[in-house]
Structures are given as C-alpha cells and as structure tokens.
Amino acid sequence: MSIFKKIRGLFSTDLSIDLGTANTLIYIRDQEIVLNEPSVVAIRQVGNQKTVTAVGMDAKRMLGRTPGNITAIRPLKDGVIADFLVTEKMLQHFISKVHENNFIKPSPRVLICVPYTSTQVERKAIKESALGAGAREVYLIDEPMAAAIGAGLPVEEATGSMVIDIGGGTTEIAIISLSGIVFAESVRVGGDRFDEAITTYVRRNYGSLIGEATAERIKEEIGGAYPSDEVREIDVRGRNLAEGIPRSFVLNSNEVLEALQEPLSAIVQAVKSALEQAPPELASDIAETGLVLTGGGGLLRDFDRLISEETGLPVIVADDPLTCVARGGGKALEWIDHGVDLTSSE
Amino acid sequence: MDNLAEKIVEQDLSPVDLKLVAEQLGAGELLRKARDKAGLTQTYIARRLNMAESAIAHIEAENFSALPSATFVKGYLKNYAQCVGVKSEEVLAAYQRYLDAQQETPKLRKRERIKAATSDPVMRLLGILSVLLFVLTSVYFWNEQQAEELMPATEQVAVVEAGTVSGKTHIEAVDLSVSSESAKATAPEATLLVQFIDSSWLEVRDADDKILFNGVKLAGEEVNLTSQSFFDVAIGNAAAVKLSYNSAPVDLSSAARSGDITNIELGLRQP
After folding, report:
1. What is the dihedral of CA A191, A193, A199, A203, to 10 degrees?
2. Which of A22, A192, B76, B121 has the fewest other C-beta atoms within 10 Å?
3. pTM for the full model?
4. Is there a single domain that holds both residue B161 and residue B200?
5. How far is B5 from chain A (nearest CA, A)?
6. What are phi and psi for residue A340, nearest 5 degrees?
7. Is residue B127 part of a domain?
8. Structural domain of residue B160, as residue ranges?
9. pLDDT digits over A247-274, tens only?
C-alpha cells in the first residue's frame, strides 16, 4: 500500500456501499445513510471519445429520454457488474461526493455487498472497480448477511434467522446462524422484474407501450402482492401501438396484482424451497420467530402478507427495509475493528 | 383510559390526546382495545398473522421477554396494528417507551463504550497532528542543545591552535596542574603576581566573579593578588605582561597576541 494512500486515508471515512442494480446506497460509519441514488450513468459520445455527463439522480432522469449521442446506462445487472469501466466511474463519483473536502482525493476503506451467488470473477470485478475508484482497502460481504445485520437479527447467536432481501435485480434468501450463512439462495427476480411485468401486461392488455419510469411509478403507487378490499387506480399515459399516438388510460390495483403474479410466485417458490432445505433445528427457530423482509421489494404493499399466507409463518418487514443492507454493511465494518470478521473471501 | 383508546381506534385524536396516549397506554393495551373494538378474537389474529396464540397473548399482556428479540417484536406489533386498523407508529412509540424503561442502564453503558471505542475522525486527526508537533519540537530542541554543547568546545580547540582569533581565549590550567595541586594541598590561598613589561589593562576576578583588580598599569609596575586558588584573568596586552601563579611562571606565548584581549583561567574553579 503506498504511503500516499495511507495519508489520504486519514482524510477519508470508512464507507459501506450497497452497490445495487437499482440504487446505490452509501453509509458512513457511525453516521447515517449519506447517499441514496440510482445506479445510472449517462455517457456522452463524441466521435470515439466517451465522457460521463451525469451520474445518479440526474442520469436517471435522462433514462429513456436521451438523444442519440447520450446513453443512460445501468452498469450493474442482476447485482453484478455488467460494465466494468462505467461502474468504476460511478463509484468514483459517489465516493468523492460523500467526502465534503475535495482538497485531498479521498481514499477510504470500503465494504461492498455482493450477491451470495456471485462468482469469483464477479467479486473480483467489484473489488477491482472499487480499488480503481480510489478505495484504500476493499472488503466484500454477502448481501444477505449484511441485510440480516441491518435488520437487527441476532446473527451471532445460535438461533436460525431467515432473511429475504428483495433488491432491484436479485432476491436473496438466506438462513443465518452463528455469524454464518447456513443456506442461501439467490433468484434473479427483483424490483426490476416487477416493472418489466407491468410493462408487458400493459402492452398486452392495453396495446400501449410505457417506459421503465412509468412502470416503476405504477408499482409504487398502486402495486400490491395480495388482494385487498380497497381498489386503487392510477392514470397512465403510454404510446398506443396500433395508432402510434400517446393515449391515456386507467389501471387499477387488481390488474397490477395480476401482472405481478409471475415474478411474485418465483420469489415465493424460492422461499419455500429454502425452507425445505433448512436443517430441522433452524427450521423450528424460523417457524417460531418468523421471516424478515428487507430490500426495496419489502416496500411492495402486502408482500409480507403474501409470503405469510403462502408459508404459514409470521413475516415481518424490517425497519427502513431499503437501507438495511448498507446499514448492516456499516455495522460489519465496525465489527471488523473489534475483531469480528463477517466479510466473505473473494 | 377507555375513552382514549376508543379515540385511537377511531383515529380521532387531537394533539393533546396524542400526548396523553403517549404517556399512558402501553403497546399491548392499545392493541387489545383496538381488537375488542373491532370484535375480533385472539385466535383470529393469531391465525391471520400465522403466529401462535400464546404469542398474541404475550403481546397483549406486554410480556415481551417471552418473545424473540426487539426486532421481531416491532415487526409483530406493526403487523398486529395493521390487522386491527391502528396506526403502527403509535404502537411502536409505546413499545419504544417500554424498551427505554427496560434497558435504561445497559443502554447507557453501551453508549459510553461505543463512544470510547470509536472517535470522531477530526479529533483523531488533531491527535495525530499534536503528537507530530510534539515530536518535531523535541527533535528541534535536542538539536539546539547539541549545538550549544559542541560550539564552545570546538571554538576552544580552534582558538588554542590558532591563537586568539576571536579575542577570547580559554586556557585550562593543564600545565599548572602541579602547582594547583600543591596549592590545594597547602591551603586554599593562592597568589598571583603580574609583572608589567609594557603598559596594559588588566582585570582579575575570583571564583565568585568578584573583581579583585581592574585598571591600567604602566611598564615596570606589578600587581600581587591573593585569592582562593582560582583566578580569571583578562589582559589587554598579553605580550606586555608576565604572570606568575603561586610563584610558577605561566606561559602566555601561545595565547598572547597584541591587540586582543586574552582570557586565562588559572587554578580550579571551586566553591
């Protein structure tokens, strides 16, 4: 490690980064979530030269609205890096953004959450891109472990806890006991798949094309995972495929529920199969305490109810589910200094 | 109390009521009232939330120690509140009060420990800087001291070799060791005889820095002084003077050079 990095390290703070498909969250040690921005980078191409024009919130606003020479891209797919260089640029931008003094280039210790099922190559790529973005040291932690810590589960105790982390790209289901993952499963279904399902449904039933942003808005406002008595409605505008002109129509929550059936059942199936494979002692612990939902998917209305009905177990949604992973990573980083290492090897 | 609980259930609360609720009702009681109001049984709630009936009973009795950790209890309360149509924030606030009351002392201790273990990065930086400053100043002063100790020594050597370059010469009474020893042996008294070949200025001090003689003498004159074995002699024109310490002649030829003041210490500086 170069001496310059060490000196720069004195002027940097330890960070925990939840590098998600949909959103990147940064938690500063002993503080709060300091950054929560979409993982989107807008790149302008002039001739053969590519430059980053916007990152995060600004870039997301450009998504689907860009002219020919600008492309707004999501450098992560299914929780792993799809575009190495762009991820590095994005991390660089976010790391310098959370350091207020720009006098000295920050060089923090960074803990990054990676999907449990990601391959060695994918982990290496994430580590390298963080180092390239100026990190002094990079630790990796399994996402479900971070989620469980962030949700406040007793991970170090000899009781089984089950956590379901529904992110943008992946859903991670894990059974944790004695600071280790006993069983984990990762399905590449997440919030993004919900959006896609809604887009597909609208195209098929209304003959209209809607964008990603609109689909997400529909999901957030009237989306639900379990039939409810109250039917909510939303006005949607999309381009009619037959006429080729923008048309406005009304969607209700029952239709959205129908649209979401497929990805929802995929997650429920994964949960069931995880429970099937749980060792009996841990299964009985889980039956007593229940499952914990974290991640942005936990915010989908009545998702806990759906899983509870399907499994016959109590299901609770963690406090502030969206930031669980980042907060848990921050706690794990603190524990490293106290000699408890929950990070995973490369 | 009952009146308040009804208001909560109907979500018809003024800020004053809210404050009262916050101070009076426990989470379990709040939920039980709401359940009664809705006409539901514990069994129904248990089945709806897929929980054991005993767990529901524990919640309503506020017997939280029989339930899993606080994280789970919070989740259960939230679900229960949703089930009976009460605002979950109020129930959770009530539970938080219970937690605070329960864990007042351990919580405080924990916070102190955390404070001690982790520190503000700014403070850490300041600490490092102050240690650096301390080290640098001590190194600086140490060097200064070394220089001060070295300087006179080198000067002395140089002067003795090259004569009175700076005008101030220290000659240790090395060659007088015999006589000074004899002086010590006989008595504390020592004598100094200064004979003037030519006119010169002379100053003589004793061990206490007291001036024994100060003035100009002409050729042929002489000064006889007595002191306690030590003389600090300053001569204006060393070439014009002959010194005798305890009747032994002192060789001034190496130090003497006209035009400079010559400083000679004779004998040992004793208290």
Report:
1. -160
2. B121
3. 0.67
4. no
5. 25
6. -105, 110
7. no
8. 153-183
9. 999 999 999 999 999 999 999 999 999 9
